[in-house]
Write a structure and sequence with these properties.
It is built from 14 helices and no strands. The longest helix is centred in the last third of the chain and has 40 residues, at about 260-300. It has about 300 residues and is mainly alpha-helical. It has helices at about 15, 30-60, 65-70, 75-105, 115-125, 130-140, 145-150, 160-170, 175-185, 190-195, 200-230, 235-240, 250-260, 260-300. It starts with 13 loop residues before the first helix and ends with a helix. It holds the Pfam family BPD_transp_1.
C-alpha cells in the first residue's frame, strides 16, 4: 500500500496555511500563567499604581482650593512656563537632528557610521549629573569659554540657555533611536523609485519617507518631550536653583519638599504625573498604529 503523503501548505485552507505556529514554550499549565499574571499585577500595584495614587492623594489632601493655589503660586507658574519653554526649544531641535541622523545611518553606508551610533547612545550611558557638569566645564567662570563669555556679557549657566543645552543633550537620542530601526526595516526601494521617476530629494522625503515614518517620529517626539519636561539631574547642575527664574517643575518640587511644604510639592508633582499618564496613553496608541503599519508592510511584501 502506498504511503499517503501529508497535505502540502498549498492544499490547506488559506486561514490554516497562514496561521502562526504557537511556540511550545507558551503552552504552560493554567496555574503557571495565572501565577505569573498575579506576580506582574502585584509588582505593578506596589511600584506603580500605589505611588502614583499617593501623589494625587497627597496633592488633594488639603482640598481643591489649596491644590489650585499651589499650582497658581508665582514661583510654580514661573517653573511651569520655563519647563514648557525648554521643551518647546529642545524637542524641535532634537526632531531635526533625529530625522537627519536616522536618514544618514539607515540610507547610506559611510566610514564612522558605528562611531555616530555610539555617540547617539552616549546620553543613555552618561549620568545626567555628568551631562550638566560638562557644560559647567565649558561655560563656567573657570571653564574653557568662561572668560570670553564674561567679557561679552553672555550668560549660559544659571540661565535659560544652559537649561536648554543640558536638556537637549540628555534627550537627543530618543527621536533618532526610534527612527533608525524603522527606516532600516523599510529599506530605500521606495525612495529610489521616486528619484528615478524624477522627484526631487525634498519631494521624496515629504511624500514618500515621511508618511512611512510619521508614527515612529511622533512616538520619539512624545518620549523626548516627556523626558525634557521631567529632567532633573542635568538641569539641577546648570540652573543655579534661582526661584522664579531658573527652576523647572522638578526643581520646584524639590525646593517645596525640602521646605516641608508637602501639599504644594505634591500638587506641582501631580502635573508631571498627569504628563506621564498622557504620555503613556499616546505611547500605547502609537504602538498600536505602528503595529498595524508593520503588518501592512508584511502583507505588501508577501
Amino acid at each position: 500500500m502506498a504511503a499517503i503523503a501529508p497535505p502540502s501548505s498549498s492544499a490547506l485552507p488559506v486561514s490554516l496555511a497562514r496561521a502562526p505556529r504557537v511556540p511550545a514554550a507558551t503552552l504552560e499549565p493554567t496555574w503557571v500563567r495565572t501565577l505569573l499574571i498575579i506576580v506582574a499585577l502585584a509588582f505593578l500595584t506596589l511600584f506603580l499604581f500605589v505611588p502614583l495614587a499617593s501623589v494625587f492623594a497627597e496633592a488633594l489632601k488639603k482640598g481643591w482650593d489649596a491644590y489650585i493655589a499651589a499650582i497658581l503660586e508665582e514661583d510654580a507658574v514661573s517653573a511651569i512656563k520655563l519647563t514648557l519653554l525648554t521643551a518647546a526649544i529642545a524637542v524641535p531641535l532634537n526632531l531635526v537632528f533625529g530625522v537627519a541622523a536616522s536618514w544618514c545611518i539607515a540610507k547610506f553606508d559611510f566610514r564612522g557610521k558605528s562611531i555616530l551610533l555610539t555617540l547617539i547612545d552616549l546620553p543613555f550611558s552618561v549620568s545626567p549629573v555628568i551631562s550638566g557638569l560638562i557644560y559647567v566645564l565649558l561655560f563656567g567662570a573657570q571653564g574653557w569659554f568662561g572668560g570670553w563669555l564674561q567679557e561679552h556679557n553672555i550668560k549660559i549657566l544659571f540661565a535659560v540657555p544652559g537649561i536648554v543645552l543640558a536638556t537637549i543633550f540628555v534627550t537627543f537620542p530618543f527621536v533618532a533611536r526610534e527612527l533608525i530601526p524603522l527606516m532600516q526595516s523599510q529599506g530605500s526601494e521606495e525612495e529610489e523609485a521616486a528619484l528615478v521617476l524624477g522627484a526631487s530629494g525634498w519631494k521624496t522625503f515629504w511624500h514618500v519617507t515621511l508618511p512611512n515614518i510619521k508614527w515612529g517620529l511622533l512616538y520619539g517626539v512624545i518620549l523626548c518631550n516627556a523626558r525634557a519636561m521631567g529632567e532633573f539631574g542635568a538641569v539641577s547642575v546648570v540652573s543655579g536653583h534661582i526661584r522664579g527664574q531658573t527652576n523647572t517643575i522638578p526643581l520646584q518640587v524639590e525646593i517645596l519638599y525640602n521646605e516641608y511644604q508637602f501639599s504644594a510639592a505634591f500638587a506641582v508633582a501631580s502635573l508631571l504625573a498627569m504628563l506621564a499618564l498622557v504620555t503613556l496613553a499616546l505611547k500605547s496608541f502609537i504602538e498600536w498604529r505602528l503595529r498595524d503599519t508593520h503588518e501592512q508592510f508584511q502583507e505588501q511584501g508577501s
